[in-house]
User: Which sequence fits this backbone?
C-alpha cells in the first residue's frame, strides 16, 4: 500500500498505466475500481496527458470520488475512492 503525502490517504490497490494512451488508462481504471469494495481507494499512475481531464469525468460518471490528482516527475497520480454502485 502507498500513502500520498498530499492527501494522507492509503491506497487499497494500485494500477500502473504509464505508457498507455487513451482510452486504455480510463478503461483499465474502471475495471480496477470494479474489483474494489465500496469505500476502497485506488492509486493510479499515468503518463497520458489527457488523463488530467479524463479521470475527473470517469469519477463523475461512475459515482466515485476523485480524492487527488497531481503530477509527480512527469507522471500523473490519481487517488479514487470507489462509490456505491
Assistant:
Amino acid at each position: 500500500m502507498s500513502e500520498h503525502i498530499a492527501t494522507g490517504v492509503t491506497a487499497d490497490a494500485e494500477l500502473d498505466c504509464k505508457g498507455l494512451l487513451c482510452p486504455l488508462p480510463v478503461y483499465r481504471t474502471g475495471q480496477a475500481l470494479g474489483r474494489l469494495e465500496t469505500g476502497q481507494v485506488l492509486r493510479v499512475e499515468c503518463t497520458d496527458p489527457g488523463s488530467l481531464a479524463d479521470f475527473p469525468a470517469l469519477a463523475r460518471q461512475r459515482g466515485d470520488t476523485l480524492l487527488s490528482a497531481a503530477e509527480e516527475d512527469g507522471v500523473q497520480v490519481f487517488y479514487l475512492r470507489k462509490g456505491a454502485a
The chain has a mean pLDDT of 90.
